[in-house]
Structures are given as C-alpha cells and as structure tokens.
Amino acid sequence: MFIHIVGGGPSEHLPSLASYDGEHVRWIGVDRGTKTLLEAGIRPIKAFGDFDSMTMEEIILLQKTLDDLDIWPAEKDKTDMEIALDWAVQQEADKIRIFGATGGRLDHLFGNVQLLIKYAGKPIEMIDRQNIVTVHLPGTYTVFYDERYRYVSYIPISNDIKGMTLDGFKYPLTNSHIFRGSTLCISNELIQSSGTFSFSKGILMMIRSSDVGTI
C-alpha cells in the first residue's frame, strides 16, 4: 500500500497527480489540498485539517462529498500536515509520498522538511514538479539514474556526516567527513545506470532535482 498526501501548496508546484495514482494508492487530503485532489478527479479516503484556507461553502461541500473528514481547531500544537503524516506513518505503508508541501510560505516549507527529519529512515518522499526530497539514517543506499532528476544533492542535517561515500557519481567521495553548512555535496550527477551512497553516522537529506522548468 502507498499513501499519498496532498497539502495546500501552490498548484503550479504540483506534478501530475494522476501519474502517481494506482490500484494500491490511498490518497489523503490536507486542508486545501483536499479540494486540489477532487479537482484532479481523485477522491481521498480521508482528509485532515482546520480548513481555515477554505470558505464555509467549500467545507460544506467536502462534508457532503467525503466519508471521512477530520476537522481540527485552528489553534493546535501541530500543523495539519503533521497530523496527516502522523496518521499515515501509523498505517505502516510501503511508501508515503507528500505533494503540495513546497512553494508559497517558507515557514510551511521548512516545517514540512522538519517532518521528514522527524521520521528519518521511514519510506517518505516529498515531491514537487522539480524535486524529490528524502531523509536518511546511516546505511548504504542505491540510487538509479533518472533523466527527469539529473542532479543529486546531499545535505547534512545533523552536525556532521561521517564515512560519506559516493560511488557511481561524477564527483565521487570515499569515507569523507561532511559538516553541516558544507556545500560539497550539492549538484552531483550519476554517470552510470545506478550508484550508491553510504555513511556511518549522522542524518542526511538527499534532493534529486531537474533542470528549471523541465518537469
């Protein structure tokens, strides 16, 4: 089972949601992202939020349309996205993808990145038209070449990353020590069909990106 969560980020940053649909996909709406899903012809199984970005008429329509609308108060200790992601992680899905979480307000963007860090090591991706973001714990990981996402960047989340090794990349590394604030691992590229990255200590973010406007 795959759980796909759609937030209320600007629609121009969204990839084609239909291209991520499938028999084993369960869609979740977050606040205005619920309306985005319905406009794309996708019916979410559940929706979360205070829905403060929607009119009362729109909320009433959602209540009539959806079987499971989980409305929260505007004053709470978690964002709507965190509430939805907490629920999704509890379902033990094979993969969770988050859409509509970038663009627009920077506080929401950085808050959503914090959620990836909160669940570091879980199979969670944050996706927009130009990027795929994941957060990793120590280990060895395989990366496959994808023409849509040519550039691969690694950003230390913890104070430092130890034992960083990149194999199959244009700019390889062997057992390197990377500190937070370093741009050493920005904008690398695979030079073969697949490559690996590994590290022994720390928390690492991987961002796969396209050229501007190509996706």
TrEMBL record:
Q: Name one GO molecular function term.
A: thiamine diphosphokinase activity
Which organism encodes this protein? Parageobacillus toebii NBRC 107807
Q: Which domain of life is it from?
A: Bacteria
Keywords linked to the UniProt accession = ATP-binding, Kinase, Nucleotide-binding, Transferase
Which residues belong to any copy of the Thiamin pyrophosphokinase thiamin-binding domain?
Answer: 139-205
Entry EC no(s): 2.7.6.2
One of its GO biological process terms is: thiamine diphosphate biosynthetic process
- This chain belongs to the protein called Thiamine diphosphokinase
